[in-house]
Amino acid sequence: MPYSCVPLDFHRLPAEESRTRVRAFRDLIRRRRSLRDFAPDPVPLDVVDLAIEAAASAPSGANRQPWRFVVVQDPQTKRLIREAAEAEEREFYRRRATPEWLADLAPIGTDWHKPFLEIAPLLIVLFAVDWEPEQRPDGTQTRHKGYYVQESVGIAAGILLAALHTAGLATLTHTPSPMAFLGRILGRPRNERPFLLIPVGYPAPEAKVPDIEKKTLDEVREVR
User: Fold this and answer.
1) What number of other Cβ atoms are within 10 A of residue 128's Cβ?
2) CATH number of the domain where residue 62 is located
């Protein structure tokens, strides 16, 4: 099949400007921390929409764009999500997690209680779309599958977190397992699979985060 092309909109930067820009981004994103102590203050929905638009520009396999972003503000829905998430997390901490896993989590201080799911002013639930319904020329229905869905949605999630942080909003990546309850509560179709639950908001006045360190450049990068 022939395909159409358009000129690339790309601006090559002088090396020094490249350094300045990426250094500023590095310093900004290094200040991002996973937050569990949220203030209930509302956040501007249009700012969140701009961040989602940025995330939805992510590359994806065959440009299938296999993601859906569900923004949850309704208090009752947030309560249902918290109750279901805590039920799964309770099982995780009491029965599913290995001793090694629990030991690794100990310095972070997490447990099955997830009050932030109600306190944060909104939640973004990111769904991965494994396939989409499609009608054949003869009128029958088929499934048009996605390609590299996990990788594509993961890239979109990273862009979303960076965009929200750039906008001055705090976030948390929450992955209760299993997460099928999110599809049920939010009434999502069966071709959508819960990928990530992201509380969004502002830090509580006395918010604290674990005292952790990131690996150095030499620990994560190799040049050959």
Assistant:
1) 21
2) 3.40.109.10
39 located within any domain: yes
Average predicted confidence (pLDDT) for the chain: 96
* Listed residue (143, 135, 140, 160) closest to 67, CA to CA: 160
- Structural domain including 77 reads 35-204
- The answer on pLDDT for 144 being more than 90 is yes
In a domain, 19, yes or no: no
The tens digit of pLDDT for each residue in 46-67 reads 999 999 999 999 999 999 999 9
Instruction: Evaluate whether residue 23 is within a structural domain.
Output: no
Please name the residue that has the structure tokens 């003869």: 138
Which of 201, 200, 189, 174 lies closest to 68, judged by CA? 189
* For residue 42, cis peptide bond before it (omega within 30 degrees of 0): no
Q: What is the pTM of this model?
A: 0.95
Evaluate whether residue 210 is within a structural domain: no
Helix axes 149-166, 15-30, angle to 10 degrees: 90
Give the span between the Cα atoms of 104 and 30, in whole angstroms. 22
Phi-psi region of 33 (alpha: psi -120 to 50; beta: other; left: phi over 0): beta
Counting the structural domains of the chain, the total is 1
